[in-house]
Amino acid sequence: MAIPWLIDVLRQAGLPVVEEGNWRDRSVSGAFDPFGVLWHHTAARSSPTNPAPSLSTVINGRPDLQGPLCHALVDYNGVFHLIAAGRANHAGAARASGPIPAGDGNTMLIGWEIDYEGDPSAADPQHMTDAQYQNSVTATAAVLTYLGRDASYARGHRETSTTGKQDPAFVDLDVMRADVAARMAGGRTGNVQHQVRNADGSWRGLSAVPAPGGTGAQGSKAAVAVLNDGAVLVVDIGPDGVLYHQVRRADGTWSGFQGVPAPGNAAARGSEVAAAGLPDGSVLLADVGPDGAVYYQLRRPDGSWSGFKTVPAPGNAAAKGSKVAVAGLPDGSAFLADIGPDGALYYQIRRPNDTWTGFQVVPAPGNATARGSELAAAGLRDGSVLLADVGPDGVVYYQLRRPDGSWSGFKAVPAPGNAAAKGSKVTVAGLPDGSALLADIGPDGVVYHQVRRPNDTWTGFQTVPGANNAPAHATEITAVGLADSTVQLVIVAPK
């Protein structure tokens, strides 16, 4: 048995994926009938400039062990490099652990090699990056769901090894399994928090988005959109997978959460959500439903809802996707982009009369099709759209769609030292002067931000402040710019 389906499962989970050569045909001899996932670390020191130092080794093997040595390598930025679809030499003989029986580990288990040093005796011991951890959890949850197994079928090599292996180091495997279980149950939830960036660039401080009973809201995803009166609409996907919304008024008070309506008075559910304000004060809400289809509806200025419809795709089909982004435009139309089941970025325009232009691919250099794992969009005052995405290499890219429909071409968002910015999540917010704020979650889990000026120069990254002026950490981010040049940022912070 081989697992060529692995690429589709990982991309559907929204993960950055790189195919390494003929990975579908790579294997060692022997049986392979997997029903679990095994975590490893490589014992090599990765870094932003050398994110996958073990790549050649896991493909080609070592003098004492024939390659391939895993099914996927997880690099410093959380990118999954696909190594083999067949049996790999990664687990060896296994002792019983949880539901995994004693036996041939290479037959029973799919293996991730997470590329970090993990040496407790090192002067500066290297742990997994946040991107490696989060993406390994997401990938494990997706694969176990595909296999029809629960989170207990994820093990660490140190739990199954018969020869005293200690990998993956510096990780509580019970906590990691619990995170897999939470992801399988509907996503990783955290504390939904909000803060305002003032027009002068200062920040007012994070505060909890309120929920019933005086508690702070919990959720896995969030979206924010501006309304005409200086208020914003905040939408989050709760721990139960339901979409909730409330308004933060211009005076800083909140209206209280209500469920987003779905047909038959049901509660709307989804795995991803995006929202954009339109010039008439309505909001276009888009989400990826439990069936993988992309849906949309309008929240009208009076607070009523138009009802969900599927975003159209060729052949009268419903669009499918793993991620979605929307941006309002000055003429009342809206730009919608999604990451399709094939990992490609597609876009189309919804006209004010509720007709659609039809999907096209987002262009990439060399007439290639753009690909990514995360995306965000913001409308600018001149009718252009700033599109940002996290590419398959973990780099954060951006380009403009001009008012005439042409594209400027992708560039990497700059980081210190003339490097390209890396991240796991990204959001953008247009400002009245034609500039835009971009925020991302770096490989360390910290939220960074900078402003792109109208002349395509950047101010340089700074951290977003969290509690006690420490850098804010998040698993999700979303932002919107207001007419007074402030930005409202909503994050899902780890519990």
Structural class comes to mainly beta
Outline the low-pLDDT stretches: none
Query: What is the CATH C-level name of the largest domain?
Result: Mainly Beta
Please outline the major beta sheet: 6 strands, mixed
Across the major sheet, the strand order is 1-6-5-9-2-10
Radius of gyration: 22 Å
Instruction: State the distance separating the first and last CA atoms.
Output: 40 Å
**Could you say what the CATH architecture of the largest domain is?**
6 Propeller
Portion of residues in beta strands equals: 35-45%
Rounded mean pLDDT is 93
Helix content: 10-25%
Helical run tally? 6
Shape: globular
The counted number of beta strands is 45
What count of domains describes the coordinates?
A: 2
Walk me through what this model shows:
With 495 residues, the chain is mainly beta. It folds into two domains: 179 residues, Lysozyme-like (3-Layer(aba) Sandwich); 304 residues, Neuraminidase (6 Propeller). Helices cover 10% and strands 36% of the residues. It is globular. The protein starts with 5 loop residues before the first helix and ends with a strand. The model has no long low-confidence stretch (mean pLDDT 93).
Write the layout of secondary structure elements.
Blueprint: H1 6-12, E1 17-19, E2 36-41, H2 55-60, E3 61-62, E4 65-66, E5 72-74, E6 80-82, E7 93-94, E8 103-104, H3 105-108, E9 109-114, H4 130-147, E10 154-156, H5 157-160, H6 173-184, E11 190-197, E12 207-208, E13 210-211, E14 215-216, E15 218-219, E16 221-226, E17 232-237, E18 243-248, E19 258-259, E20 261-262, E21 266-267, E22 272-277, E23 283-288, E24 294-299, E25 309-310, E26 312-313, E27 317-318, E28 323-328, E29 334-339, E30 345-350, E31 360-361, E32 363-364, E33 368-369, E34 374-379, E35 385-390, E36 396-401, E37 411-412, E38 414-415, E39 419-420, E40 425-430, E41 436-441, E42 447-452, E43 462-463, E44 476-481, E45 487-493
Parallel strand pairs: 1-6, 2-9, 2-10, 5-9
Antiparallel strand pairs: 3-4, 5-6, 7-8, 11-12, 11-15, 11-45, 13-14, 16-17, 17-18, 18-19, 20-21, 22-23, 23-24, 24-25, 26-27, 28-29, 29-30, 30-31, 32-33, 34-35, 35-36, 36-37, 38-39, 40-41, 41-42, 42-43, 44-45
Helix pairs in contact: 1-4, 4-6
